[in-house]
Write a structure and sequence with these properties.
Layout lengths: L1 H8 L4 H22 L5 H12 L4 H8 L3 H26 L1
Length: 94
């Protein structure tokens, strides 16, 4: 177990990077769950497809049957709400 503690202490080690990725994924999932009810399912889907799956807004619009502008606006609204939610969570930890 000493190797694990040493690996996590070193930011250059792959284990540390993987831990960071998993931690970030966990936080994002929790934040998305906390704001999901504030948006239509299509808006959340458009956000996930563009921000997480890195699909283009045009491709997402085609797939969801909406406009590119609606996809971009929805993504922006979800991002704003996620930032607000994260700010509230991390402000409570201070």
């Amino acid at each position: 177990m000493d190797w694990l503690a040493e690996s996590l202490a070193s930011s250059d080690h792959e284990v540390h990077r993987q831990f960071d990725v998993e931690h970030d994924r966990y936080l994002l999932t929790r934040l998305l769950d906390s704001v999901r009810s504030d948006f239509a399912p299509t808006t959340i889907n458009a956000f996930c497809m563009t921000a997480l799956q890195e699909m283009s807004p045009a491709d997402v619009a085609d797939r969801l049957g909406t406009t590119k502008a609606a996809v971009i606006a929805g993504r922006s609204r979800v991002l704003c709400r996620l930032r607000e939610s994260a700010g509230a969570i991390f402000a409570d930890d201070s």
